[in-house]
Amino acid sequence: MYLLYLDDSGSVNDPNSKFLVLAGISIFERQTHWLDSHINAIAARFNPTHPEEIELHASPMRGAKDGWQHFSPQDRVQAVVDTLNLLSSTQSNVKVFAAVIEKSQLPLVQIIPHAFEKLADNFDSYLAAIFQRSNGKNPQRGIVIFDKSTFEHSIQSLSYVFKHHGHTNGYLRNFAEVPLFIDSRASRLIQLADMVAYWTYRRYEALDDRGFKLITPFIHGFSGGAQGLYELISPETKEKLASIPAHQYPFPPPNPMGVIQSPAVRI
Question: What stretches of the chain adopt beta strand conformation (E)?
């Protein structure tokens, strides 16, 4: 079974936000412990005695809020880089899925349903491809796991409708159950999904692609066309994304040991 951990970034009802991102990671069920343990080791840099008390929450880490103001920008940015670098592990073979909606392109009430439909369809197609490549010897089912959110009921309802009554492109044939919702504080993999969603959002909302550059190679199907990334954006946004300027404070290289590379780094 494959698990798809998802989180959102941006807000449908926030007038100061132009985009809504729904994004996260897919991982085979037996690989979750390895990834969890490595993310936990990064959290332990900030509380070695009780690492479970540290939630790697991307927005507060960047903004120095919710307790993160007690840690240096260098430590925070290194933790971001090293967490996103775990996507590159051949041990876990993580795939990224994301839906990016520019809010001006749809009525507000349609944004969450549309984003989830596209993600669910792409994930379902990924599971079907695994089956087809194995000549029918590796049937896999999937479950979507969300951070607890205000749209829990609507997502569960949509999943049922897509599975039993269809959606724009057909039916969801490989889902084992309706989505599950858990507390992000209890799941390191939801925290990684939050990191992926937030730094994807930063690319579109703030033209800050530092984190997205680390994410891009692991988007499902990236080398052959990014089937795991769905965008509904304006031509003007596409033009801006094609010429994002270099950031004043580039990310340091990954360092799993957590040693600070440069005192000049800012998040």
Answer: 2-9, 19-28, 95-102, 142-147, 180-182, 229-232
Note if the pTM is more than 0.70.
yes
| The pLDDT of residue 153 | 58
End-to-end CA distance of the chain: 36
| CATH topology for the 2-241 domain | Nucleotidyltransferase; domain 5 (3.30.420)
The rounded distance, in Å, linking the Cα atoms of 213 and 203 is 9
119-128 average pLDDT score: 90
Would you state the structure tokens that stand for residue 18, as one six-digit string? 């132009």
pLDDT at residue 161, as a whole number: 56
Domain spans of the chain, in order of start: 2-241
